[in-house]
Specification:
- The protein has one domain: Rossmann fold (3-Layer(aba) Sandwich).
- Helices cover 35% and strands 17% of the residues.
- It has a four-stranded parallel β-sheet, with helices on both faces. A two-stranded antiparallel ribbon has the order 3-4.
- β5, α8 and β6 form a beta-alpha-beta unit.
């Protein structure tokens, strides 16, 4: 990537709300889906050219783009080593086994593969129900689509975890996963996404 392109990438604005990633006036975030999270971090805002690059990775297996994203994720982990010292494990958002078979890989796991700062656990969370793609759905439809579709498969009592996903738009997937993790006894939960949509859907 040339220097000019690198400098105009839509970096996520860290001055936005630390829990939901949006701009609002409340001193304490009241966004329902983020209530189980301590912090939400993002590398990019979901603005051009990021959506096109993510789509090309997920659906066209564009690993040139993928390796570039891996490097940005690695840089984030290197820059946040002090914060990550207290995190026990990273939980990438899982795919349903059938979707994993069809796609050939979980993009969330792939994006994390270069960082070695925190252990990544791909078995503690399971997508137990097949759901339609979230893209193109309203907030209410997304909520219904993912409800009760995940399960915890091991002991997470008193663990401090970092959830990871590629995209956060309405936050419904993160909410559903964080909800069951709280029930499983997780004591502290942050989330990191490659990109965060700044539009309220």
């Amino acid at each position: 990537m040339c220097c000019r392109c690198f400098l105009v990438l839509p970096r996520f604005d860290s001055s936005l709300c630390l829990k939901c990633g949006l701009a609002h006036d409340q001193k304490s975030c009241l966004v329902d889906w983020a209530k189980n999270l301590n912090h939400l971090f993002a590398v990019f805002a979901y603005e051009d050219p990021i959506p096109k690059w993510i789509s090309s990775l997920k659906y066209n297996r564009n690993f040139v783009t993928g390796r570039m994203f891996q490097r940005f994720i690695l840089n984030w982990f290197q820059a946040n080593r002090e914060f990550l010292r207290d995190i026990d494990l990273i939980l990438p958002i899982p795919l349903h086994p059938l979707r994993l078979f069809n796609r050939g890989y979980n993009q969330a796991v792939y994006l994390l593969s270069r960082q070695k700062t925190v252990p990544v656990d791909t078995k503690m969370l399971r997508k137990k129900s097949w759901t339609a793609q979230q893209a193109g759905k309203t907030k209410k439809e997304r909520m219904a689509n993912v409800k009760n579709s995940f399960e915890v498969t091991g002991d997470l009592s008193n663990k401090r975890v970092l959830l990871f996903d590629d995209v956060c738009t309405t936050g419904q997937t993160l909410f559903e996963v964080s909800r069951i993790l709280r029930k499983a006894g997780v004591s502290h939960m942050d989330a990191l996404v490659l990109c965060r949509s700044l539009k309220v859907i």
